[in-house]
Fold each of these.
Amino acid sequence: MEEKIRLAVFGQKRLSREGGIEIVVKELCTRMAQNGCDITCYNRAGHHVSGAEYDKTIEYDGIRQKVVPTIEKKGARDIIGSTKKTYDN
């Protein structure tokens, strides 16, 4: 029996069509999930440019999503978010 590939993805703000890396991550993860991979995306907590809070979607097109809290300070947000995602159980 072939073992399912498990993949953790982090670094993006969230799965969306709003930015460069976010579009690439969404497309790759969606296609890998359709091919049987077990995908978990660790998304930064935050807000849209409009000020609205990001959706709290738990699963999207077979991709499990986890929201990681972070500090809302330019520069610190990326480093802290990535560190928390790295040590998630």
Note: DSSP finds two helices and four strands in the chain.
Amino acid sequence: MNPVPPAAPRPGRARRAAALGLCLAAVLSGTAHADPPREADGEASPAELTSDLAAVRARLDDLQADADAAILAYADAADRLAEARSESDAARRAADRAAGRGAQARGDAARYAAAAYKGADLSPAVAWTSSRGPQEALDRSAYLALVGGRRSDTVATADAASTAARTLAERAEDAEEERAAAAEEAADARDAALEAVAEQEDALADITAEQTELELRLARVRGGGEREELEDRREAALDRASSAASAGSGAGPAAGAEPASGEPCTASGAEGYPNGRIPESALCPLPQPGEMLRADAAAAFIRLDGAFRERFGRPMCVTDSYRPYAEQVRLFREKEAGMAAGPGTSTHGEGAAVDLCGGVNEHGSAEHAWMLRTAPDYGWHNPDWARGGFEPWHWEYTG
């Protein structure tokens, strides 16, 4: 199996990890005294949990790269299997046709032999007792000579056809062996891909749980000054998103156009850009580090996040927001059929969806129940297809 280079990590993931690290480092620098280092009972401090989270996320990046490589290897093996099947079928059909031609040629030779046998009496008695006399004998002799010649040619053709049939039959057997080998390779590659994806999914569940725990602990240790700083940051993000949403209420740029400024949340909006190909300058950052949405969705989410903070005393936990096209392709390859939107069709690619943790991701939890009641007031919904515990973490902005 040819080695497959690892897929490039999602740009937003590296940005998110860096932003989260800086944000948490700033918060923890002022609150380290409120939470002592790891005690004898093994409890981790927020700083240690932050370090652990960064390490686990780095491991997730490696797992995603491994999954991408395994999926691409399986795709290559599946292509080779399809090609081997086609070649095997073609070789078998050619061998069957050659065998048929050989059988027909041998049948023709047998018929010529029978014809020669039936007309073989050329004795002098026949020549003088026949009604046509010697002329009939001469005619029959000429006919037998013709039949004999055709029989010889047909026998030669039959021999050649038999040789070709044997050769093609051998090729068909070789092709069948190659097909079997390709099928085994594809099966192994599929197993490897499924294993890599399962390992990644298990790690993602652990990361979500750890991120939720970290959010809860940080909410407990933050002092008044840090809360004010976070609120100021939230208000600033809300102002930028609201301004950008107002500025982008027009038709937006033409598809593929680049905004004038590279600074996030200052372009005329995300409208007109293909799904999953919205530039960062047309997206607005959320208070959650590294997460971005289109302007109107971001403004509504930040308001909803403020209401969530008032109710639960902490910001909402976000695992995913805007999703680039390449990231959606990766997910579509990894997930089982129906478990991920096709590339170019996801609401994440429109900058209008988030995946949440921190309890919202658990069907029946207090956080999830609160979101079901409150989020629609801000234009956010857990869509019908995601209800009933199917994807409680997935929320979409509908305005």
Note: The longest helix spans residues 134-221.
Amino acid sequence: MVDVTYGIPLDIRDAALKMAGIPNEYAIESQTRNREVKAIMGDKQEAKHKENESEEVEEIEQKRLKAHAILETLAAKLSSKRNVKERAIEVANKDMTKIVAKLPFGGTLTPPVDSSIKSFFVFGFSPEMPQYALSSYCEKFGPTIIKVVHRSRCAYVTFSARKVAEEFANEIATKGMSKNPRTPGLVVIDGKYPVRVAWGAPKPLGTSNDDHNKIGLVVVKVMKQLAEKDASPQKNKRKVEKVKKSYKAASGDMEI
């Protein structure tokens, strides 16, 4: 629970007051009310206790003011820490957005105009896929440099020559499971690890486990979207074929 006045947790509030030797402010208020009630009691006792009562009330009021000052300072410090943390999270999210935006999730197997590019962005594999499975598949075409980040479910594969890279892309395009040339190619590595492949110059894949996990979540979402996108042309094709068939049946009724 949080103190509604200062916006700080109750346990932190009470601990701070205790360390300062000040009773809980609600207890102070209760004591003040009790003192006020006693001050109204019998006329005979009022004169006797008036001076002492005034001193006690003043002492309690001083403690109350001190408590308020301590809690206000504590609230300001906690608020400052929260703001710093929130700003750090905001900056981290912006940085992550920039990283993800640079990854070629929308790439294809069509060779890029820039002939210096001879690398591929590979994504969507299970974190359990061993790196050697990807290496073995790619090295059939020639020497490679492979950077795999399992938590991100991403990798970059760079071939030694552009010609070899084009052969690799053509192999996936013609013998893989790709159904839509406008999406990254689809191939199954080692018979059990489906991955997407697209041309792309190597980009950063995050620097921390948190970054890698966030990118991994994006990859899972993109893989689902691509699967749906690959399926849509087939659906449209069936619709077109159905329309053509219906039109053919009716075409003999009239000639112009």
Note: The beta strands are 119-123, 144-149, 154-159, 185-189, 193-199.
Amino acid sequence: MGTPLWLVELIKKTFPNRRMIAKLTHLPVLGTIAEKFLFEGDDIMYLPKDDVININVNQSLDMPTETALPSKVIHEFIDKANFHWVMNKCICRDASQCEDYPIDLGCLFLG
């Protein structure tokens, strides 16, 4: 079942106020309601890096280069997900009127 369009519109309209709304979730009643309706059943997964770096004390460090997630790992998550929700555009960039990155490059939500 797809996400209703009214929910997508609600997210887009409230996105600019996300920081204030996030602070409100610290209140006992609002926080419980937000947790129940927005985050119940969601799990955050952290993936380990592919390499290990030894750091010697009292030595300067070079800036790390960005490391892309290996596509094999990404495909594994996509294959194992029971549900795929593909967005045609990025809600975050659209709501923020982002001009630095393409809005039409959407998100893939897995569940």
Note: The chain has a mean pLDDT of 79.
